[in-house]
Amino acid sequence: MYSDSEYVGFTYITPTSTLPCEMVEEKQLSSEKKQMIVSQTLSDHSSTDSCGGVDEGPTKSMSFFKKGFGVTLHVRFFDTLRKVTRTQCFSMRPHSTMKYIYEIVHAWLPEMGNLVCYTVHSETHGVMYPLIKKVLHPEDDAPRLVFCQEVFLPFHNPAHCWGVVNVVVLQHHGSLVPGYIPLVVHRSSLQSKEALQEQIRQLCCASPAEANYMKSQPFLNCAVSAGLMDLVSFFDSCNDDSTALPQIAVVYPALAPGDLVCVDMLDRMSRRFSVQCMIKCSRQKDGILCYDVEEMEVGYILEGLTCVQVLPL
């Protein structure tokens, strides 16, 4: 559901044809950022230009490129702290590199710090999976669909500077389903299990109770391909210099209707408190398993909680 700030629920993969890419940004780009984008577009054959978040009038050069000049790039940004996502489209010249895409995305999301972009695994028929295939660097060619999220450390060019954490839920019949969006972490966080757990805690904005529950789950090295995840061995640390993208899985148990859980919440004064709830149902929303729970005293329903947020009693 869209809100006034044009954020949508914490979704993950949606086919490109149905991405909400025609949204008009309520918070427009600053004039300085617009001028920077226009100048790059006019002066460099590899530059890009926003087609969804600018005003008409002073930026007629932008409007020219907006009207079918070049190819369209879709960018989906995941805010792991607020558990929301935003989507935007940009027009770019063919063979543009990610250097200009990073500049455009930073202009689109000036309130964000360091951003990292990536692609996901997909089938030849266009089906996409919530599994990261490649972290994109400034010198890489820009694909037509890019996902991005904020990271806490400066971006470095070598691919081996990054790793991926896959939060999954082990269902009762033995299959694994995504329980959260994949999290991109700096390679230094993989030097120990404790360092990785702290990075996950920050990215998920987890409460102390949620963090302790997360630390009690098994951490495993995994191999990822299109639509498949193979659990290889227990994770302890990753100190090798391989250029391959390390993939780690945190495996949560599935919860069933009727299970009693504890949910940590914040009041309007940012004070944390816990409520006892009961699982009403589980469902997959855009590929992510989530839970609807009922508070035990008043009976109100909390919808769309992730496996990180519900703590079994």
Describe this structure in words.
The chain has three domains: 136 residues, Ubiquitin-like (UB roll), CATH 3.10.20.90; 95 residues, Ubiquitin-like (UB roll), CATH 3.10.20; 53 residues, no CATH class. It has 313 residues and is of the alpha+beta class. The chain has five helices and 17 strands. The two termini are 31 Å apart. The longest helix has 13 residues. It has a six-stranded mixed β-sheet with strand order 1-3-2-6-4-5. The N terminus is likely disordered. Helix 4 crosses helix 5. A hairpin with a 5-residue loop joins strand 15 and strand 16.
Keywords:
5 helices, alpha+beta, 17 strands, Ubiquitin-like (UB roll), six-stranded mixed β-sheet, disordered N terminus
DSSP strand count: 17
Number of domains: 3
Helix and strand run: HEHEEHEEEEEEHHEEEEEEEE
Strand content: 35-45%
How are the elements arranged and paired?
Layout: H1 31-43, E1 48-50, H2 60-66, E2 71-79, E3 84-92, H3 98-108, E4 114-122, E5 128-136, E6 145-151, E7 162-170, E8 176-178, E9 183-186, H4 193-204, H5 208-215, E10 219-225, E11 228-234, E12 247-253, E13 260-266, E14 272-285, E15 288-295, E16 301-305, E17 310-312
Helix pairs in contact: 4-5
Quick structural summary:
The chain has 313 residues and is of the alpha+beta class. Helix content is 16%, strand content 38%. The radius of gyration is 21 Å and the shape is globular.
